[in-house]
Structure formats: structure tokens, C-alpha cells
């Protein structure tokens, strides 16, 4: 039986043309209508592709013994190429000699050059290696969000002179710049549906490198601004598909540069408002949408739930009855979101012809419904003192109620706490309210007595041997307690009346009931003094003048006098005895010695101011220097001051000093309780 092989070949070629179109319909759910002219061109191109003289794409040189996986490192891409090598349409429409290609099979340049069709059969993450397929005619790749880089297309030295259709769907592509540099003079169809394209500014470059381009699809991307298409200039482009994006304004296409554009699809737009509007479920809710067509605003045609639409302004009003149900919406992106939707659907004349733009879409407006306020925190356990002036505002400030939203706070303060005149616990009710309802809680306020106040003198003096009890002490220091409480002290535990010293006594009044408070403690310094006391300076110096510098070496005898180190150098005798029978001060000193152990051979001379007294040279033996006979002067105590600066002196012999050194002596003063004869 004889066959007409030319007829069979034509049937196969036509079938190959139909298959890619059907495949697109399955993937996208719709097929872009094709004009008869485009279909005729397609057939013509197929015939040209079959002409061997046109298969001159200057392919890249493939290293010897390269496997498919070597050239196509992405596993999905390698599997796709292996699958396609065994297909009839990639073997000059003849039965291939090898049909079971594997990714680790060695492949030749000739075999790759025969590939006209490339349809993905696995998830592709990278198209690296596509540069080795320069004679591609029809490319249909599904990326499943894995691939976003198209730059390998640019590695083909002379581009793709036979490329007719390029479908790259469902990837993560946002950068189309490689396509603007792609050399594909016969490319008519670009389908970039299901990617992540948002910026159309580079699309204006496509006609420069792709002069035959007639149809573009960017449906199901992330496009909201079509204004860059105002600069897209092409007399070839016939179909532009912008379905399933987020476009709400077509005004920039009023004076477009696509005079032969026949079909512009702007259907199924979706606009998700990000920030929810806060509203009440008890009142009607209105909004003013903004959708613009090519020359004028587009009217809202439907809402969910049902609402009133102003026929002129398209203002939408959802009634209070509708809002009371707290409407929600769902879509293919979200589910069960509180809010409303509103849609538009209008066919708009385009390019001054009978062609209509199908323009429709939906706004998704999330709402946050006001709820009755919830109390987040407040200061519990407030306490006030009886008799303290208190207003409701001050009470609220102290309570510091924090709620989860703006609210009005009210209380029954006036009924419970205003003009309160007794101690105790008082329950106050607080109500936080808004238009949706209120939340109540009760807090207990404690009214206490004011703390008592203690007053007393800051210090008091007793003598060694005095007999004083706590009652006498409080009387001596004028201790008083004002308010509720009992005055207490620790006098008997702190003060030792038989030992001279300074003691700290604390006056207190601990609370004796739940509604009472502790008084602030007060301290009193109690001085216990000796009956007969001698006060002496810690140190003094002997010098030729008031300047505290070294005594110079001199070849003459020098007289030094006494100078106080801080203040005056004095001896003071305080006699607090009831019967004052007099006293005696004696003095003794060690020799003056320097740091090297040298001794200064001189003594301090003490000259009393008493009449007929003789000078006394101090040495290591106690010698009386001052005395006082029995006398009664001050009824409390008798004080006698001896000025050492007027009484002490010393002489040093010529050259009896060392430069830059000092001499020290220890002076012992002794007070005896009676005058010596």
C-alpha cells in the first residue's frame, strides 16, 4: 500500500501547532483568541523551519563526551531535555533512533540542534544550558515558583532565530531585562503568566529586539501600575493580556502607541486593601472606591454583602442591619476575613474602534470591628489617709486603668468615697464603655488613719553616773506624739550612763491596728560626758613663723613657738562636778626624733600665765603645768581654756637642725581631779 508522505508530514506539522495552544488552555484556564492572520503566519513559519538552510544559529561548541546533566545542571531541566530528545517533533518528524534518553547520556551538538520544541516535564529551577538549543521554535516551561533568572537566554551567541513562541509560566520571575536583550526576530508570542512581575517599565524595550512580537500575556502577576505601557510603541502588537492582576486605573492608556492592538484583557483584577478599617457593627458603613477606566471613572456594579451604590458617585453604603452580622469574605488568597467586597465590570471602547476592553475586578476591604473594651491593667490596692482631699479625677489618675482601645471610664466614686469620714475598706465600681458595650470591675480602696507625727530635740547631754529612765528621757528631749499611736523609745537599750560617749536613741510609734500606720521614726543623739574632762589638740607644730615650711639651719640660736595644725592649739578643762574642788594638768614629752633616729637636744618650755609662775621644761616625767583651786562659776559646768600658742616655746642651738626633715615628739597631758599644793 502506498502513502503520500507529504500529506502525512503536513498532518504532523499541523498537529504540532495545535498541541501548544491546547496546552496553554489547560494551564491558564482560558485560551487567548487567535486571529486568522496569526494562524496563517504560524503555518508559514513551520514550513520555513523545516527548510534546512534556515537552521544556522551558530551554536556553542559542546565539550566532547558531555552528558545532558553536564550541559543542563538543573535536574528538572535535564529531565525535560532528555524527554524532548526522544520526541518525533525534535527529530525532523521522523521516528527517533533513540527514545529512552537519560540525563547521564552523552549528547552531541547535532542532536541538540535538532531540538525545536521544549516542553517541561519536571519542576525546573534553572534554565542554564538553554543556550545550547539555538534552534528552538516553541518553548513552554512551567517553573512552579522555582526559577527567577532568564539570563541564560543571553548566552546563545546569535540568539534564537527560529523562536516563535515563548511560554514561561508559574515561576518567580520579576526581572524581564534578559528578554529586552534577547535576539529572536521571529518571536510572536510571549506568555509570562503566573510570575511575580510588578514593574512594566522595561516592556517598552521589547519591540526593539523582538520586531515580530504580536501577543503578550502577563496575567496572574503582581501588576498594579500600567502607566509604563504608555511608552510601549509597537505597530505589530495585537493582543495584550493583563488578566488577574491588581489594576484599578487604565487612564494612562488613553493615548497609547499600539495602533493595531485588537484585544486588551484586564479581567479578574483583585485589590486587597492591606490596612483594616476600624468600624462598629452597630452603625452603617460607607466607603468611596476609586476605579478609573481609560477616559472616565468606572462604576461599582456589585457588592458582597448587599449594599446601596450611589449611581453617580459609586459611593457604597452597607446598612446597620448588614453590619450587625459582621460580614466576612473569602477568595483564592484568603479565607474568612472580616470585611466586605465590591466589584466593577465594564466593557470600555478602546483605540477609537469597535474593540472593547473587558475590565472587571474586585476590591477586598478588611474591617476590624470595634469590640466592648477589655481592661488590660489597673493599680489595685489603693490606700488613702483619712481626711485627705480626694477627687474622682485624682482617683482615676491613681487607678490608671489601661484598656485595649479608646474608652470612657466612669465610677461610683461620688457615692462611695466622696466625703468619707471613717477608716475601712470601700468597694468602688469602675465601668469602661464604648459604643459596643462595657466592661465592669470592682476594686477595694483602703482608708487609713494618717501616720502619727513624732517631734523631739535633736540631742541631749547627760553626765557619767546620772540616773535617768525612759520617761525622764522623753521629758528631757521634749518628745511628743501627734495622732493615733503610742510613743516608744530604745533609750534603756542604747544608752550606757556609766560610760562616756555618744549614743543614738530612736523614738517610734508602730501601728497597733490594721487602719493605723507607723510613725516616721525620729533619732536623738545622747551625749554622756565625764564629770571632769580634758580636751586636747590632736597635733600641733613648733615653728619660727606661721608658714608651714622647714626650719632653716642657722648659725645662731633660734626660738620656736607653737602653732595649731587646724585651728588653735588649746587645752580645755570642763568641770561638770557639783562640788568643784579644783584640778591639775600635768605634762610629759618624749625627745624630738627624726626619721633617721637623730635626737634634737632640746625640750619644750611651758610658761603658765598664772602670776608668779616659773617656766617648766617638759621631759619624760609628768610635771604640773596648770592648776585650778576650788571655785563655783557656771551652775552647769566650768570651762577653762589654756592657749598653748602663748605658753609653749623651744630653743634650738646653732646648726642644730637637718634640712628637709622633721622631728616629732609625743606629748602626754594628764588631768588630775584636785589641785596640787
From TrEMBL:
Residues 375-447, 452-528 form the Internalin I Ig-like domain. Residues 30-52 are annotated as: Disordered. Keywords: Leucine-rich repeat, Repeat, Signal. One of its GO terms (cellular component) is extracellular space. NCBIfam families: LapB_rpt_80 (NF033932). It comes from the Bacteria. InterPro entries: Dev_Immune_Receptor, Ig-like_fold, InlI_Ig-like, Leu-rich_rpt, Leu-rich_rpt_4, LRR_dom_sf. SUPFAM superfamilies: L domain-like. It comes from Listeria monocytogenes. Residues 41-52 have a biased composition (Polar residues). This is Leucine-rich repeat domain-containing protein.
